[in-house]
Amino acid sequence: MSTTRQLATYASVGAVATAAHYAVLIGLVEGAGWRAVPATLCGYVVGGVVAYLLNRSHTFASDRPHTEATWRFALVAFAGFCVTFVLMSLFVDRWGAPYLPAQIVTTVLAMFVTFALNRRWTFG
Q: Could you give the number of structural domains in the chain?
């Protein structure tokens, strides 16, 4: 599959994973009264599970054993988690941005980082 098509598929899978992420984020902030940063990090974990399963089978069609791919994916997800933490902390806590627009920008930036790492190292 071409890089362009993989990126498009990755973005589509990311949309599904992001919907799960945002559902947790919004539920925890609006429903449970959590602060935005811890809520988004919980959502990130839920979205990560969805992303692993769908990217392994649809985006990269990887035959790498789960025992190898899962820990690699987890490290890449942790890198994305750190990007999410830093950017959301800056946008929301330091600069006072509304949490949802901040999360949208953060999601797009983290997507490019994690795509490159997953393509070359996790599933490649």
A: 1
